[in-house]
Design goal:
Length: about 280
């Protein structure tokens, strides 16, 4: 069994994404190291994200079974995020959101995703249109739809994420209709490649809620676009922010006239919520 071992954790989504994209068959965190299992030894040191690791040869074992045993359902407000083999562990009354681990674009196990789902869960989304900027695996847009959004759109600049998001929607029993994906529980759901930069919206086209799991510098860059895309008084949910970068996000929201700014920390990661001011 071939193992590529390097410093890191499963919470580092950039690192885990790089390993999946390099061809890893599975990942495991053990004693401060991230261990990636491969069927053959590949040249990984030339990739900046993966430099500094070492190859190990170990006795074969059923690492996939061990890895699955370590996964637990993630409860985030009214939603529980689970892999397909743990759906029976979802507590009664919780909404089930199935996301298969082993994908390049993240699952609900990262603190930023969990906090964003919790923030969506705290809102009344009935009759609201929700925009998920940088949707990746689609987990936040899917959660918004399951939570009752009238329509949820996941927007991502990376075309590779779009088919993954559609696959995840289908895992959650969304089916295609002429107007978008539909689930018996949620509203309409769709995913598209694109960006907010430079877009303008009529008031009737604006979204009732905007959520974005990106890094702080992008939130700073896109703050004016968030304001343009949101309805007056609409909630803004931002995460993917390291605690040390909170000041940058605060200043961006102040610059663009957002109000009721609140922050929440989970370890080194932060969630910021705000409202679009009515007269901006």
């Amino acid at each position: 069994m071939l193992v590529y071992r390097l410093s890191g954790t499963l919470d580092d989504e950039d690192l885990t994404a790089a390993l999946w994209e390099a061809g890893a068959d599975g990942l495991e965190e053990r004693q401060g190291f991230l261990r990636a299992y491969f069927s053959e030894q590949l040249p990984l040191d030339h990739l900046p994200e993966l430099a500094g690791g070492e190859w190990l040869t170990e006795p074969d074992r059923d690492w996939q079974a061990d890895w699955k045993l370590g996964l637990k359902p993630v409860r985030a407000g009214r939603v529980t995020v689970v892999p397909s083999w743990l759906v029976q562990d979802v507590e009664p009354g919780q909404l089930t959101l199935i996301i298969e681990p082993g994908m390049a674009f993240g699952t609900g196990h990262h603190a930023t995703t969990r906090m964003a789902v919790e923030a969506l869960s705290s809102l009344d989304l009935q009759g609201r249109r929700v925009l998920d900027v940088g949707s990746g695996s689609g987990v936040l847009a899917i959660a918004a739809s399951l939570l009752g959004a009238e329509r949820a759109l996941g927007l991502d600049i990376d075309p590779l994420t779009i088919p993954v998001a559609f696959e995840n929607a289908e895992l959650n029993r969304f089916t295609r209709t002429a107007s978008g994906l539909k689930n018996t529980v949620g509203g309409l759901l769709d995913f598209a490649q694109g960006t907010l930069e430079g877009e303008s919206y009529e008031e009737s086209e604006r979204y009732g809620v905007l959520v974005a799991n990106l890094y702080a510098e992008l939130h700073d860059l896109l703050a004016a676009d968030y304001r343009e895309a949101l309805q007056a008084g609409g909630p803004l949910i931002l995460t993917g922010i390291l605690e040390g970068k909170l000041k940058l996000v605060r200043e961006a929201l102040d610059r663009e006239g957002f109000t009721s700014v609140q922050e929440r920390l989970d370890g080194e990661w932060a969630l910021v919520t705000a409202l679009r001011r009515h007269f901006v």
